[in-house]
Amino acid sequence: MANYGMAFDYKLCINCRACEVACKEENGIELGASKHRLWIKEEGNPSGDFWNLDRTQSHFMQMQCQQCQDAPCLKVCPHEAIYKDGNGIIRLHNDKCDLSLDCVKACPYDARYVDTRKKITDKCIFCADTRLARGETTTACQITCPAKLRIFGDLDDPKSEISQVLKKREYFQLKVDKGTKPKLFYLK
Amino acid sequence: MKIIETSRRQFLQSGVALCIYATSSTALTRLPTDSTQSTSSLDKSPKITPFLCNMCRNKCAGLARVENNILTKIDPNPLFPKSRNMICPKGNAGIQALYDKDRLKYPLIRMGKRGEGNYKRVTWDEAFEYIKDRLVMILEKEKDNRSTIMSCNGEGFNKDEYIQFFNGKIGSANFLDEGSICLNTKLGATQLTIGDIGEPDIAGSDFVIISGANRFESLITPDSIDLIHNKQKLVVLDPRCTVTAIKADEYLPLNVGTDLAFCLAMTYIAMRDELYNKVFVQKYFKDFDKYREHILKENYRAKWAEGKTHIPADTIERIAKEFFGAKRPLYYMGRRSVWSKSDFQFRRAMILLNALAGSINKKGGIVFGKPIKLPQEEINTPIYDNAEGRFDLEGIVYGSRKGGSWLNFREQVVNKTAPYSVKAMFIRKHNLMQNMPNITKTKKMLEMMDLVVVIDTLPSDTALMADVILPECTYLEREDRVVSFNRLEPSLALRNQVVEPLYESRSIQNILKGLGNKLTKPLFEVSKKYDEDLQDSIKELGKLKAFNEGGYDLAELYKNDITARNKNLIVKAFGKEAYRSLKTKGVWYPNMEKYHKEIFNNRYEYYPEEKRHYSVKRDFKVNCYLKKLAKNGFDAMPTWRTEYDFHVPKGKFRLITGRNVTDTQTATTNNSMLRDLIETNHIWINEKIAKELSIKLGDIVEVASSIGKIEIKAYPTNKIAPNVVWFAHGYGVQNEALTNSFGHGASDNILIEDKFEKIYGCATMHHTDITIRRV
């Protein structure tokens, strides 16, 4: 049992999208531009005139389920289909989902999408039923990343790389004002 | 480049907003694992095979997971120094290359006219028989001039044995590869200036300048990866604000093709202020005084360069001082196609800047290193009396004797100015109908052939022009010859076979073996008829001995299969342990177990700092002045000519080309996973100009040059200069059999005028002006 989280050294991202493909291949995500468990958001496109572009606000942000400790999706599901597993990962009982889409609307991070084949709302579960289930210790996005900017591990283990890095470096979380207590951390 | 940001919640609410750009929700042709399945059904001990990727030229190392004979996942191989434990989006999507439903599955023979796409399925033997009949007919007509059979190859792996077969055994002088539509000027300039092509040490450098090479959207390992992690200052020059430019510490937008002027001004400042490394110059430079005098006399001041490049003079002054003041500066030479006719001079100017800073054979510079030498397999090749020489290097000062000059070759064939007829072409993994400027001309060349054989994995546009199509298996279905990689942190790596070849596809070794066995006797009989040397040899030695000693057995190299050949070669040169390591781990280098260790979060050290080959003992000279160039009427030292000035007529735009991070030319455009990420190419146009022309995002625009016309979607942006447009290469395929890519985007080579520089015979890509209008 662990309490999994992920930290991003987000400024290293070059938007190559290896993570997106690795995730789709590992987890059998259906094709389609709006079907993905994770994506890269282009923030702050360069501004101004071509000869004097301001690039200081340009970043690529790693977006996916924030693994909220207080998850809005879990609370709103009318069928109690959403649960937190033993590793602190927000999961779904597929058979209980009837596509009411309450969870999709409740998520402040836009993390859920509709899997039209399985007829469920899907999102990132840290490869829980694929890689972690095989006994691997990395997620598909993390291991393939050219920048190695994704640090995944047990937040309750003080020796884990993620715990170490969160102790050493400053970070921020997304939309903390929503009270969701996300377990994803963006390193400053 | 992601064109549109989508909010899925908004999508649900508004319903229609992103329909134009969303890829259809095609189900995957093969689902790796169903995430709804219970964990108990997962194969917990799948077969893991170390292999080398082939989705681009890099050859990164991967670990392939196979469950029930199906490749279900590709992960990076942490042991390979070159690829730094990563697999890019293309590498990850390699699964879809293997299981692409459009793959060439069986040998095919053309039924209708060339280009119509009507083929019948035949057996391998029928295909070989057809090729044999045509070749005998052609060689009879050409009186055994073997050079009438040209061959070309666009893939790095197995290229040498492909050349051994067609140049060595068949005996044709005409082999061409991608070098003359790629980077031959860079290789040549470096070789001629410092006597070696070297390797840039990005990780060791503390100040890097990159001119145009888009290292974050055209990934080169380990360069791109080292550039992400290192803390050095990065300066990027580019006429387009790429991701590499966005990530740079300093981005210098400039006029297309004026980088040479920037380099000359940097050189001028170094000479004027004596910023260069005097000890290094004293020891290694040849004709330094001549170069210094030339640069100062030409007066390449920063102010002069400002007028050419649009980079402010004070910036140039500052960058030059920072570069020469850095401890380990590197002017990154790039790895990219040739832009303009000044390209060779530009690359020379860059290598000379590195040399002036003393950044040669040194940490953080261009290193010679210590590659692991692989022994060659010796084979006996015949000498054909009537085989003529190659003609594509006529009028080219240096040129690559190995890979030739594509545009000059095509020009001479099409204009019938070649000294003899070329009548047959063997084309392997080389999409001629898309890969070089002026597709109309390429089509004309192919139409002139009596035999066109295409060896490929996919029905490319070139396959559409073939008489015979031979299906090669993908890189995941074969073992290849062991390869030596890198110089600073050298290693050997082996592509092991992940799964058996699908359908009736074969490895290139098996294709050449079959072809060799079929052709050996009939082609020998043709030579016997026309080759006087062979006739004398038969008289002297008898037919059998003349055949054997002359090396006429075309399939000689394939007596042993590739696994046996690798084993013999590796065990003999490096021992059993090295072979075992390559078979089970995919990688080997001396002391690998001892040296290889994790630093943090799946990043590794491959060699300890003191064991990397930063500097090696070697006598070398830095050649400032190349006499051969002067003799041929070219500048012997980097020089600016007024014809290099950037000028676009009013109402026109300069077309520049490049690619997306998800694509390797046309080879990946049909990949369902990659198509899912970027559906099509868009033309970048300056947003202010677009507004004036009433062009909005997604509008279809007509783009016309002097040789062709296309329609493409528009992407107005501030990331490109007002008189420049750009779109990614690799789209606009014409073959309907490529169902994922057909109908998506447009091809740059319909527009790019075919011109080539005369020092290496390389196609230049950035000289075409176009007009653009909304349809």
Quick overview:
The complex is a heterodimer of chains A (188) and B (775). Chain A is an alpha+beta fold.
Give the neighbour order of strands across the main sheet of chain B: 5-4-17-16-15-6-7
Taken in chain order, the helices and strands of chain A follow as EHEEHEEHEEHEHEE
Count every helix of chain B, treating DSSP H or I runs of 4 or more residues as helices: 26
C-alpha Rg of chain B (nearest Å) = 27 Å
End-to-end distance of chain B, in Å? 24 Å
Shape of chain A: globular
Biggest sheet architecture of chain A: 4 strands, mixed
The level-1 CATH class of the domain at 108-182 and 385-476 and 504-558 in chain B:
Alpha Beta
**Stretches of chain A where pLDDT falls below 50 for ≥5 residues?**
none
Please state roughly what percent of the residues of chain A sit in beta strands, choosing from under 5%, 5-15%, 15-25%, 25-35%, 35-45% or over 45%. 15-25%
Report on the biggest sheet of chain B: 7 strands, mixed
CATH architecture annotation of chain A:
2-Layer Sandwich
Whole-number mean pLDDT of chain B: 93
Give the termini distance of chain A in whole angstroms.
Answer: 29 Å
Secondary structure: number of strands of chain A: 10
Q: For the record, what CATH class of chain A applies?
A: Alpha Beta
The computed structural class of chain A is: alpha+beta
Helical/strand content category of chain B: alpha/beta
* Fraction of residues in β-strands of chain B: 15-25%
Which architecture of the domain at 108-182 and 385-476 and 504-558 in chain B would the CATH scheme give at its second level? 3-Layer(aba) Sandwich
Q: Quote the CATH topology of the domain at 108-182 and 385-476 and 504-558 in chain B.
A: Rossmann fold
